[in-house]
Give the backbone structure.
Amino acid sequence: MNAHSEEGADARERDGSPVTRRSVIGGVVGAGLLEMLSVASPVQNGAMADDLPAGPGERPGAGEGVLFTADAPRVYTREQWNARPPRRPAKVLDRRPDHIIVHHTATANATDRSLAHAFALSRFIQDFHMNKNRWDDAGQQLTISRGGIVMEGRNRSLSAIRAGDLAVGAQVLHHNEHTIGIENEGTYTKKAVPRRLWDSLVEVCVWLCQSYDLEPSKAIVGHRDFNKTACPGDVLYARLPALRRAVAERLDGGSGPPENATGDGLLPILPPLDDLT
């Protein structure tokens, strides 16, 4: 949930609020608000989503969430997660982005994988971006929960992707008009990436590379590649080479999402993926 964006800089100039160190640490929320999302989670004392049986077409443990694949992309819309109206419609450019930016939200590493939690996450991000950063809307185009649920972020993003266009977000300072951003729920400075999130991240990147005719080895980057920030965390950033390879393999004829999200063993020194973190 990035506080480091072109639109954010404009907003700070308008309202006179300072650019703080927290705003460039990475993630929208920052360390001081890590607990807020977990407090707002709808499942606290009952069974975690991982303990719930999956229905037809659902990823095990995802509750009501439907498995995202590039071949049948299931993106939950703003209407479904009950987004607020934006201050103004997003600008849509009649051209494709040239980079896919991987972020982490810098929020708590929640254990709730449910659809309700994912929707609460999207509302939380939007509220933070609009109320605290004073942006027009959520900054990122897409959001992935730790349960692997994929949601539309900034208004007009989903229709723009389907048309091969770019809904301009507010997620990378000075680079919003040629990039598309994916927020990944959690903090990955030290913790491993959940398997469900990783599987969906791979498939979302496949989908975007197909939609925009992008080469994953060049297009998929981390927030820190453009701005001075720790985002998307050392652990997730270290896995970007594996992400690029996994996406390339799918584009070259892979039959479906990876069976083993830890990869093909080519980089055993990388941090593992972990459903429990």
